[in-house]
Amino acid sequence: MPTPVLLVAGLHAQARTATVDRLLHDHPGAVAVHHDLRSVATGRVERLVRDRSGVLDLTEIRLAHGCVTCTVREDLLPQLLRRASTASLLVVDLWDSVEPRAVAEAIDREEARGPLRLTAVLTALHAEHMPIDITRGDRLAEAGLSAAGGDRRHLAEVLARQIEYATGLVLYGGDADDEDLSRRVLTHLAPLTPVHRTTALPGVRADALCTVELAERVDPATARLPCDTSTEEITTLVWRRRRPLHPARLFDAVDELVTESVRSRGRFWLATRPERLLAWDAVAGAVSVEDAGPWLAALPGAAWELVSPARRTAASLDWDAEYGDRVQHLVLTGPDLDVGRVTALLDSCLLTEAERRAGPAAWTACPDPFAPLLTLRESA
After folding, report:
1. Model pTM score
2. What is the pLDDT of residues 70-85, one digit of tens each?
3. Contact predicate 326/223, CB 8 Å
4. How, if at all, do strands 263-268 and 328-335 pair?
5. Does the residue 189 lie in any domain?
6. Among 19, 198, 359, 370, which one has the highest count of C-beta atoms within 10 angstroms of its own C-beta?
7. DSSP annotation of 328
8. What is the C-alpha separation between 305 and 364, in angstroms, rounded?
């Protein structure tokens, strides 16, 4: 019978360690594996294996290439497979800035599914620090948390992905006010994900997680985005429209949009690129706009069979007689968010009625400041 595997992610090492400690305490025979990646850029990684009694193994390993992917492929997976026959539960204690998706998908590969069964992805959060860290615009390297040489990711960006991908969130530390604020923040960032304390963790699932379904929860075309929500000083605004966006006007509004909100994400389309679904992802002032592939309305009907059922369902729910599944669907969250002002700003970026009536041939003449960025990423 496959051994259950549980991932514990999180930037807050103290919260993550407390969560792993609790899992080892609650599950006799459980074993935790952790890789210290502080020196991964030089190809050196320290592997720590422990159970409830203490350290079982502490080994420095050397990798052919210094990266997280190499660590997972060359050492983590072999360790899990080697210990699967003797452990009741395998806990993967991820390094601070590691995003759990890539590790989950590596464990869910066909060759590992016989001996291993991925059952949960938990993200551990320090209740005192999380509401502050989600607003921090500094890079991981500036905080001493980078997972490889040349790691350009931002701290809040990684924290948001750790929160939004998880199947469960665990709060540690802080006082009652910290916990209350953390729960309100998480209501906006991950409203459907259960939140636990380290003292009351969920039981281990009997069935395996499907990482394809986990990915669909966060991928732009199928993401389960939050709804309009207001909890005291925090507001989440959902902006949905059909009319195409004028690229130059949206580009000019980017700075104000990311300043007004702490977290925003979603999918949208530009008048100059009617065939392409674009992904918007911004947190703590850092914004990314990427091409996420074609809208289904831009593909021949036969191509629908080549995409996932979740993608077809999302397109069907969004379908419009004129625009197909093309939609502007952005979700913005921030303290004291001025809903009226942000809505008016976004609405002003849409094509006017006269511009819309001019038709797609005329839209291509619109100046498009996004073109160099999107072209660069398409060719990368």
Report:
1. 0.94
2. 788 888 999 999 999 9
3. no
4. antiparallel
5. yes
6. 19
7. E
8. 30
